[in-house]
Amino acid sequence: MAAARGRAPLGFRRWLRSAAAAPRVCVVGSGPAGFYTAQHLLKHHGGAQVDIYEKLPVPFGLVRFGVAPDHPEVKNVINTFTQTARSGRCAYYGNVTVGRDVTVAELRQAYHAVVLSYGAEDNRVLGIPGENLSGVYSARAFVGWYNGLPENRDLDPDLSCETALILGHGNVALDIARILLSPLQLLRKTDITDGSLAALACSKVKRVWLVGRRGPLQVAFTIKELREMINLPGARPVLSPADFTGLEDAVKDALRPRKRLTELMIKTALEKPVQTASPREWGLKFQRSPQEVLPTADGRRARGVRMALTRLEGSGDSAKAIPTGDMEELECGLVVSSIGYRSLPLDPAVPFDTQRGIIPNSSGRVEGVPGLYCSGWVKRGPTGVIITTMNDSFDTAQSVLEDLQGSVLDVSTSREGFGAMESILRSRGVRPVSFSDWEKIDAAEVARGKAAGKPREKIVDLQEMLRIIGH
Q: Do 88 and 306 contact (CB within 8 A), yes or no?
């Protein structure tokens, strides 16, 4: 995205600093997309005022609720976001649900520009019989449960079975497998929630299969996550050498990350198991497409998954999985569907492509609605890592800056910003949470964590969060 950031002509920033009216920009969503958009606008426009709205009292989106508890280094971006939020030209308003407490039309009247960065609040469904049986969970809900997302606090997954099946070959699938099989002493030092730690302490799960429709050359996880899984103490990888026949030649000309990833899988598959017995194991299964979650005799719980065996047509990322007609059943008592997140429409006034799960846009400019923008997953779909979202958000912010310079956005008349929103929200009984309020919640979590030897103990009850700040 260097090109995107370099689009501004000479003298652009000088013009921005001398612009008469201070543009007021509203960002909806306080995850990486929202904060990176705000950061870029504040850095490159000396007069812009940015207000960030968030439906939860607490900020940071998937950095707080998506990143695995044993990956604290990935959460370091929170320090950068905190600096942005503390800027004199930035304000945070949590506990405000756009589309319910306030409409996008009302925001557009109060601000010169509105950027939608609210991410993907839903998951893709399998669309197969038995998907709603007890024991079947979406990866989004399962991750939300162990990461303290308030809406998933009561998930209470049944971990009384020995075999779990995760459908999907992405990093989230590996995160879940790792959490299910990690030694408790490793998890106790993380910010995993107290409730999920207690449930994992009683877990009977000792075998995890990760199943994908396509082959080893199409896996979406990265080498770092795979290496972590291979090196997980007390858990043995089970990869079949037959799955990798001929692949060494096939990856000779592949891009380096794909080549190294495949070579690591091959090496792991061919290694003789160490004689010390591992109490737990995990493995990758390829070219299997789920057709039905099989019920127990009483019809209530999952007891396994029926899968169609597939063959691949085409090669590389574009290869398609075609059913061969052969079927296979795999017994398991826990099924986690990790086939992707999905964005939802926010407000009838905002165009939405339900097929692709995104807001139709060009470089973040929402089609047909001047002054409305989008960034992050709701702009491009739920793919990529935090740095992908950073570049994507800078790109959208650059579009806003260009439109300010090119008079596409009329800043000759001032807008009230939160001043207008405050009275609307008060009339609807909504009390926003400020960033200093969040810092009180943060301090309470860190204090509770310290007492338990953890970095923090996340508060998972919304009412308790609000009580701490006197709401």
A: no
